[in-house]
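Bug #77: duplicate submission created two jobs. Keeping one. Sequence:
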Amino acid sequence: MAVSTYSTWADVFHQFPVDEIGNVDTKVGFVWTKSVGLLDSGDIGNVILKGWWGEGRPVPGSVISGVFQLATPGKRVELVWNRAEVEVAPGDPADEEEYVGRHFSSLRMQVHAFGLVTASGSGSFTITGKTYMVEDKIPFEIMFTTESEDTLPKVGTFAGGLGAITSLDGGVTARLQFIEDGIPHQPKLGMARKGPSASSKWSSAWNTKKKPASTASTGPGTNPSASASASTTGAMAPKATSSMLTTNNSYCVSSYRFLVFDVCEEGGTTTVTGRTITTKADSLDFRMRWTVEEAPIVGGIYSMCVWVGFDKDGLVFEMIDGRVELRPGEVETEEYMENQLFKQAWRVRSAGKVIESKARSFTLESRVNTANGVLTTITHYLVPNTKRWEKYKPVGMGEFIGARGSVETLQTVEGEPRLVVGLEELRNGVREVDTPTQAEGGKQGTTAKNAWTARSKAVSDGKKVAVTARADGATANGNEAGPSGSKVLTEEAFQLMMRKRNRDDNAAGDETEKRARVEDCG
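Kept job's structure:
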């Protein structure tokens, strides 16, 4: 199997400050920008971004956030965007101090990639692949390093990795956080300058390890202490029919900004309930064990990289390597929501076994490791009826492939929950399948704003939908009396907060008290 843009990929989900911007000479409507990113060590690396941009293109000092594809031409690092998959942070970059304070991030750059293993030795392996960049197929090469003594992938096989970028000198090096290996296939061996003024505020803050003055703040209340203790309740046993599936050769992962609206502490374990929305404006609530030292805040918006799975109670996230960051600002305010919630769609990337394949859709089954045990994730991908995908050929049953897309809704089929995803990128299985690699991505429209206030769409049997957002005196299922002393961000308060964000005139005169930050689940 040859290395191509159909069989390999490399993604970076990040936000980049724009230093300089100019036109790509060879392609009308395309622009380049120079930027900087924070490395795992805390040092600063230089990158070049490219992509098509119509009206309202970014200006120096602004911030671009989203998914970028990576290439390493001539040992330098370049990233390309699909316009539907990135956005410019709101505000006026001319007011640099305020703008940087509002959109500053201390998250390190992270790369997720899949390619041909060209080197593998003690403590590292290297993969190579190709990325379609503007008008040409450009190679990439990434070295993943690890201190683990686990077996690394063999040269000549295809494998992948997720890791925090440690160096951009002469290519990309990353500290391995997850390895994708053991995929059934037939192997075939194949073979800057210093940041200028627009990034000075970012560089200075990173170098001094100080954040700008604008940080997340909240009203009265206390926060629970975080705990990393595990719980094994709720896990669903993997199907025997998919014995080849493992948490090494399959996964479902997402990087996005999520809203936390409930914090629960029980038995030394802190669990949060959060919310995301789909392109069809469905509100989906998830549970996640909190594993970092900084206590969670109700109403806080967090940048996170998570595994995505399902148990008998619904959607479950698992934090990856403590990659979580509270976005700065005053929580539960209209301005905070407007500045920190993404306008772009919530996306997932999954890899696994094809369990259903039709003319314009396919379904993947994956496994993810969580505190609740090994969970199963089903992702059902819809192939767009666009020119880019007109030559799509159905993937083979039983093949191990990968895909990425924007989540449209949640369905339950024969009692099993699945995410319905609009396909944006497809990584073929180990056999050649002549398919495109990218399509226009989903984006949240104006109706999506209301979805943050709507009742959550949880796992259902087709007759009723459970509500996981809580009101006073209610438990997680919304219909049983809970402890009278429980304190959470109630459904009514949440609705009010979001109506204010949507500038609902009818709610202009409403007021509500700040809610206490902790619920005692005992």
